[in-house]
Amino acid sequence: MTAEAGRGTSTSASTGTGTGTGTRRLADVDALRGFALLGILLVNIPFFASGYTLPGVADPARTAWHDGVASGLIQFVFEAKFYLLFSFLFGYSFTLQLDSAAARGVGFRPRFLRRLGALFLIGVANAALLYYGDILITYALFGLLLFLMRGISPRRALWVAGIITGVFVLLFLALATAVALFDGSSSPTAAEHAKMLADGRAATEAMRGGPWSVIADRVSELTTTLPLTIFIQGPLAFSAMLVGLAAGKLRVLADRGADPAAYGRKLRTIQWIGFPVGLAGSAFYTFASTDNLFAGGLHFLTAPFLTAAYVATLLRFFRTVRGGRVAEALARPGRMALTNYLSQSLLCVLIFTGTGLGLIGRVPYAGVIGIALAIYSVQLLWSAWWLRRFRMGPVEWLLRAATYLERPAMRVRRQEGADGGSGGGSGTGAEARSEATRSA
C-alpha cells in the first residue's frame, strides 16, 4: 500500500516481536494485508474459473448442490469485505507515509503523485492482460481524492465516510425501488436470460483460446466492468480509506500496547457490534436471489461492519502466542502484497485459460476454492523465500523506482539476513520492510 514510518527501527522479525510500537504497528498492518490477500483471491478466482459471471445466470457446469454451498460460503464470508479491508489499510498506510515524509523533511506531494500514476498504469496493465475486475485503477483515482483531504481531522473523516456510505446505499435502494416499480422485477426476461447464457458460452470459449483471445476478452469486458468498479466499489472503497486515515491519525494500531486492557475492550466492542450486523446483512444477501437489488443495497451497508469485526478478531488473535506465529506467516505475503495480488491473477490465467491448462468451466466450485487455497499456500512459502533474499517484492521495487526516480537496493545484505532471519533483518532490514508494504 503506502510507505510505513519507523525507518531503521530495530526488530527481530516482521511479526512485531520487537519492543517498539512502530514494529508492532507495521507487523499488524502487514499481517492484515496478508490475510486480505486470501479473501481477495477467494472472491476473484470464480471470475477466472467460469465465463458465466453475471448475476441471475448460473454456469450450466455448476448446478450440483455442493456448487451452491461453496458459492454461498464465499458470498457469506468473503464477498465485499476484503476490498474494504485493503482500502482501510490503504488509508491507514497513507498516514504513515505522511509521518515518514515529515520526519525526514522530504517533499510528499510529487512522490505520492508519481506513486499513484505508477499504480494506475499497473492497474491498466492488469485489467487489460489479466483481470478485468482490477481494483488498482480505482485506488489510484480515489487516492488523489484522499491526498486532497489529507488535512481532514479524524472525526470529520469518519463523518464523511459515513455520509458517503449512507448516500450511496440510499441511491442504490432508490434504484432498486425504481426497477421494482417500473419493471415489476429485476429478474431478466427469458430473452435476456438466453442472451446472458450465450454471452457466458462465448466468454468461456474466448478464455479457452490463446493469449490474444484472452486479452481481447479482457479488453471487451472493461467497457462494462471498469465503470462498475469505479462507481460501485469506488465510493465504498473511499469510505474505507477515510476510516483508515482516521485510524492512522488516531494511532489505533500504534497505541495498542499503551493500555492493553482498554485496547482489548475496544476490539471486543467492535466484535459485538460488527458480527451481528454484518452477518445478518451477509445472510440476507447470500440467501436472496442473485438479482435482488434490495439485498445488494443492504449488503453494501452492513459489509463494513463485518470487515471491522474481522479486523478486531485478527488483532486480538495476533496478541496471543499462537496468533503471533500466524501473524508472522501472514506478514510475509503482506509485505509484498502488490506482487502477490498480481501474481494471483497471473496464476489464475495460467490455470484456467487456454494460455495455460484451460480449466475454465471444468472445475466444480469446491475445487476452485481448493485451487485458491493452494495458490495462497504457495504464496506464503514463496514470500518467505523471497524476503530472505530481497528487500521487497519485484513489483514493489518497480513502484518504488517510479516514485523516487531512483534504482532502489534490492538484495538483502548478508548481515541483514543473519540478523533478521525470515523477517528480513534489523536496521536497514526494517526499512526494507517499510518499503515492501507500499504495494497499493
TrEMBL record:
Residues 418-428 have a biased composition (Gly residues). Residues 260-405 form the DUF418 domain. Residues 1-20, 415-440 are annotated as: Disordered. The chain crosses the membrane at residues 34-53, 73-92, 112-129, 135-152, 159-182, 228-248, 269-288, 294-318, 338-360, 366-387. Residues 1-16 have a biased composition (Low complexity). Pfam families: DUF418. Keywords: Membrane, Transmembrane, Transmembrane helix. It comes from the Bacteria. This is DUF418 domain-containing protein.
